[in-house]
Write a structure and sequence with these properties.
This protein is α/β, with parallel strands linked by helices. Helix content is 36%, strand content 21%. The structure holds S-adenosyl-L-homocysteine (SAH), iron/sulfur cluster and FE3-S4 cluster.
Length: 461
């Protein structure tokens, strides 16, 4: 499997290509528009890093950019529609100025049926590239600047054949105290509703020493909140297991937090739960997506655990770590989901008591097993279930948050919220507002006085 690592000589070649573009990109701006999950956000930061290496000034405003890259997500139809409509916005601009380059990448670009659609219906998109092409960005940008024709850089191979790891390419982080660090890429789980294994290829882990060096560097630079990323972090196998990696990442000096996303319930280990409990730098937040409370539906989803096994894991977490915030993902309206199945989901949610639920309406994805299943659920039924779940969860979240009143929480400041109120996050990842301005990236103790379902409020001590 060692050949999944891009050789250092190839990375050096890309740096040379990047430097050779300096005169062409001088005074020009580039913009990356990212949709989707944290993994994709991190990819966006890597794309910006490569663009900056090539000499571009990075801007958030696409209207002033000469190079625009749309980094897409394909998890649900809504995400794809948003990305396509974003691409559509540049039609007029491209007609006025042919020298502007528009690229599209990410999980949607990795799918051949979407690429065909983009090729046919979005003629102003100049190039597309796949999810494992980031180490070749300088080459892609060079091609974009000189190509007379539209082009693509895609490894169009089956899931188990594509996917590489590149170390040493630049990252342009958007935040100076919160950082994402991928520990593994891809997914082998093939949940029957999910496009990710097709869009991201097979599971592959970064080497332990590379992850640790990145985290150590971030801590030395003053980063205070580091999130280790992977579609299923428990499958990590880059030289140790994930629990050990997490513990090691949270063992450099000074005050900072380490989080992770996402752990699959089938193999969230006892060791992992113990590390969260025992290492004070590991954030007390566990995101454990359940997807459904019905064992029958879980089986159809290919989740490989039962309702009872999930409950056992959730209770172990809550018992071992009383201050934990437990959050989850739930899909409403999976094919064949009956009222009874949904009642099982509602009762599981009640039994566990989640601090927050990310609820999604099932969206059929081309190429997945579930999309071909009989018994697709009408939209109005899914919508009603979605609403019932959200309403119940609001009450549960409120009662869990009420328990924080009178307690002191250590909060990492995010500066101010949209309304100009000082705000930050606790170790549980709860949003906390407070009375005095604290510079973003600094910790403070807050005595909690008020609680809403999703926001706590208090005074700096
Ligand atoms: N790897 C993570 C999830 C990544 S996708 C995990 O397994 O936990 C994030 C969430 O999107 C999933 O947990 C699921 O709830 C939701 N999701 C994925 N595919 C979906 C689909 N086709 N329709 C609706 N929601 C979906
Ligand atoms: Fe998708 Fe399942 Fe993999 Fe998560 S574990 S990314 S839901 S296939
Ligand atoms: Fe979307 Fe791809 Fe992430 S489909 S959720 S951007 S892995």
């Amino acid at each position: 499997m060692n050949d999944i690592f891009i050789p250092h000589s190839e990375i050096e070649r890309q740096y040379e290509i990047a430097y050779s573009l300096a005169s062409e990109t001088k005074g020009k701006k580039a913009c990356v528009i990212t949709f989707g999950c944290q993994q994709n956000e991190n990819d966006g930061e890597r794309i910006m890093g490569a663009l900056a290496l090539c000499g571009y000034e990075i801007t958030q405003n696409p209207d002033e950019a000469q190079m625009i890259i749309i980094n897409t997500c394909a998890i649900r139809e809504h995400a794809e529609i948003r990305a396509l409509s974003e691409a559509g916005q540049f039609k007029g601009r491209k007609e006025r100025d042919r020298s502007i380059k528009i690229g599209l990448c990410g999980c949607m670009a990795q799918q051949s049926h979407r690429r065909e659609q983009i090729y046919k219906s979005y003629p102003y998109v100049d190039f597309v590239f796949g999810t494992d092409m980031h180490h070749r960005l300088p080459e892609i940008i060079k091609t974009a600047l000189s190509a007379k024709k539209r082009f693509s850089f895609i490894t169009d191979k089956p899931h188990n054949e594509f996917g590489v790891i590149s170390e040493g390419m630049p990252v342009r982080r958007e935040n100076s105290y919160k950082a994402w660090v991928p520990v593994m890429y891809g997914c082998n789980n093939f949940c029957t509703y999910c496009v990710v294994p097709f869009a991201r290829g097979h599971e592959r882990s970064r080497r332990r020493e590379d992850v640790l060096a990145e985290v150590k560097g971030l801590v030395e630079q003053g980063y205070k909140d580091i999130t280790l990323l992977g579609q299923n972090v428990n499958s990590y196998n880059g030289g140790c297991d994930f629990a050990t990696l997490l513990n090691d990442c949270a063992s450099f000096g000074g005050e900072y937090r380490v989080r992770f996303m996402t752990s699959h319930p089938k193999d969230a280990s006892h060791e992992l739960i113990d590390v969260i409990r025992d290492n004070e730098r590991v954030a007390k937040h566990f995101h454990l997506p359940v997807q459904s409370g019905s064992t029958r539906v879980l089986k159809l989803m290919n989740r490989k655990y039962t309702r009872e096994q999930y409950l056992e894991k959730a209770f172990e977490i809550k018992e071992k770590i009383p201050e934990i915030s437990l959050t989850t993902d739930i899909i409403c309206g999976f094919p064949t989901e009956t009222d009874e199945d949904f009642a099982d989901t509602m009762s599981l949610v009640k039994q566990v008591g989640f601090d927050m639920i990310y609820t999604f309406i099932y969206s059929p994805r081309v190429g997945t097993v579930a999309a071909k299943m009989e018994g697709q659920i009408p939209k109005d039924v899914s919508n009603a279930r979605f609403k019932a779940l959200s309403d119940m969860e609001n009450d549960i979240a409120q009662s869990l948050n009420d328990k924080f009143i009178g307690r002191t929480l250590r909060v990492l400041s995010d500066g101010f919220n949209k309304n100009g109120i000082p705000v930050g996050r606790s170790t549980q990842n709860k949003i906390v507002t407070f009375d005095k301005a604290i510079p973003a990236g600094e910790f403070a103790d807050v005595l909690i006085e008020t609680a809403g379902a999703y926001v706590l409020g208090g005074k700096i001590k």
